[in-house]
Design brief:
The complex is a heterodimer of chains A (about 290) and B (about 270).
Chain A lengths: L1 H27 L5 E3 L2 E4 L10 H9 L10 H36 L1 H14 L4 H12 L6 H30 L3 H9 L4 H39 L5 H9 L6 H30 L8
Antiparallel strand pairs in A: 1-2
Helix pairs in contact in A: 2-10, 3-4, 3-6, 3-8, 3-10, 5-6, 5-8, 6-8, 8-9, 8-10, 9-10
Chain B lengths: L8 E12 L7 E12 L3 E5 L6 H8 L7 E6 L2 E2 H6 L3 E4 L11 H5 L1 H6 L3 H14 L15 H13 L5 E5 L7 H18 L2 E6 L2 H7 L2 E6 L4 E7 L14 H16 L13
Parallel strand pairs in B: 3-8, 3-9, 6-7, 7-8
Antiparallel strand pairs in B: 1-2, 1-4, 4-5, 9-10
Helix pairs in contact in B: 5-6, 8-9
The chains are: A mainly alpha (about 290), B alpha/beta (about 270).
Amino acid sequence: MTARLRKLIMFPLAFAFVAALWEAYKAVGPENGGRVLGFGLLPRTGDRAMPHVWKMVSRLGRPEVRGGKETILSVVTSATWYSFRVAFAAFVIGTLLGIAVAVLMARFRLLERALMPYLIVSQTVPIIVLAPLIIGLMAYGSRDLVSKTWIAATLLGVFLAFFPVAVATLRGLQSTPPAAMELMESLASPWWRTLLKLRFPAAVPYIAPALRIAGASAVVGVVVAEISLGVPLGVGRLILSYGQEASTDPPKLYTAVFGAAVLGLVMAVLVALIDRQMMRRHPPAGT
Amino acid sequence: MDVTSDTGDAVRVRGVSKVFNRGAANQVDALVDIDLTVHRGEFVSLIGPSGCGKSTLLRLIADLTEPTAGELIVNGKSAHQARLDQDYGMAFQQSGLFDWRTVERNIELPLELKGWDKARRRARSAEMLNLVKLPEFASHMPWQLSGGMQQRVAIARALAAHPQLLLMDEPFGALDEMTREHMQAELLRICSETGTTVVFVTHSIPEAVYLADRVVVMSPRPGRITATVDVGLGRDRSELTREASEFFDRVTEVREALRGTHVGDAVSGIDDR
């Protein structure tokens, strides 16, 4: 219980620490940036580049545009919620697809040998290149920019989330203890029942950590797609447009960055809960 | 099928050979021309040095591998059919319990594969837990149990479907000496309560003698049966049996049978515990 309490306290404490670090550097750092060994590595500390933390926070409460009714908090929140749904859909679809592909590869050796090289090569393509490609290839039927772009963003998230799950699931399915396989054989268990009763549960310790990577990848895929395609409703788009106002309204950009950070955080917590649920019947590490 | 000739025989092995890597440079004659009959209710130990094919013979009876030549009849049908019908239960050196299942759900695994409903499975697993004297551990996870307890759960699982035949491959090999002797006594009690036929692979001479009605002695290269020792200690065996002179006589007989087929280094792999 105390460990839990400590975790609960550590969380806001970590935030406070980052904010303090930010303000401390702002107070002592060079106004116009500095050079380290000839490289311009030290960030500028002027109010345009590094607004005060409290200015970012207070910016959240003011209207998005001068004279507008909606506060920036509500704009960022709804954009983050929109992106979260897209990213979560991408995570779920990518995970299911990854597991399905792994099961097929485990069932048919030939398929594994045929598919694996393509899977690996597919992950070397920079995703930012794929975004416009996917929109051209997949969403051509729709004339509406919103649905066109969210489909493309989802696909990109799926594309990124699917790979770690497929690889980990395949490894897990191939690591079933031979003695356990023999036991199932002695019980005349058909292939699919051995899969459900033995191989899949035995693969869970491999799959669960891959889900964490898949969750993070889905967020990256979706936000990058939103930025590169300008998805009208997502948090990626806000980062893009608020970034263009950085010289006149510096704290504004950071409100969108907060939104993206919360998006990643919520996804990480959710996936951690799924992970814990999946692992609750398995022996704790070290036994 | 001639039914009358099957009564009394749990296992009939006729002229069975098993060759690995046939025709290749590393060809191994694992078993050559094996004949073995195990009667219903009988406890037969297979003993021999490493490489004598005792485990292969057990796996052949279990239809986990196919013979190169010969015929295997289990429960009056082909070994293959007997496996499909779950006519036997099996226990290995590793308990092979599923980490993510409770003890009772591990025991219920064979019953799930038979399509039993939950209430019936639960009743049977409770019965089996009583049989192996672990009733209070039904909802424990396997990794919370000691090695000996895990092996007892594995035996309960092997017997859950009430098979008439139990095939065991060095099931107590990984246990410490005291647990091992205790488990041997427990196995004898369980067998006499259930009337199960057992084929038991071991490399321990005292274990083979203490448990079995008949000890089948095997030798390697090529794997074959070289002697059969009738133990004749009766069915009521206790810790006192281990100190009886007849027990030592049989142990000596088995040891000599092993030595007789193998001069010099060949008794390697035999454990005198």
